[in-house]
Design goal:
The protein has about 230 residues and is mainly alpha-helical. It contains 8 helices and 2 strands, in the order H-H-H-H-E-E-H-H-H-H. About 65% of the residues lie in helices and about 5% in strands. The longest helix has about 60 residues.
Amino acid sequence: MINFIKNNTFIFVCFLFAIVIIWLYIQTMNIMEWFPHAGDWFQVLFQLAIGFVVSFIFYVTQVYLPRRKFIAKINQCISARIQEIVSWMNEIFVQLGKIYIANFDAKKLTNECCMNILLSLHVYDRVQLINPSRLNLSCVGDEARFTVKEWMTESVKNIELNIDKLLKYYSPYVTPELMEVTEQICKSSVHHNMVRMIFQMKNPPPFNSFKEDIFFKPYLRLMKRMEKTKNQYL
């Protein structure tokens, strides 16, 4: 009700005014006119008030409430898509943290963790997830697992796919903040520089030479921003 009043202040005030006119007309039906033809003018206002109340009820029941249900379903879909994007981003940190940080705790991911991951990263190390395209049912060993390069490439592909679906299907309902953060994710150094440039080199340079984390630390901030935008759709 409060949201309705905030979003439809003018028509709600007019509705209250119409109710007052109807009440006054009923209460003064048997009272002598204040001036000639006052009753006629008051009856016209009464009829207009009745018409407005009927229109108001029609708007609420046939337009506002159905649209509210529709928007609620849209918001659920957007929220689920945001969660999918955040999950893929978080899984990059989780899988790399498991192989590069002792006693890694995904709930305590810090900037220091990001720097340690970057300095330890080697593209041909293997994460703990099986690559279905390499799976051999007769022998599941280390060779069946994703390399860091393969896993991050796969993750980035799925993140951008979900972002593309989000903007394609729900663009009229995407807030400017959500639009901005999704664009920054796609243009981030992890997506653009690391996966699309460094990983494509035959002999990628070692990451332990970096003095500053220009990859994972900004990416962690973007992930947290993305997760925060989900609150707008709850």
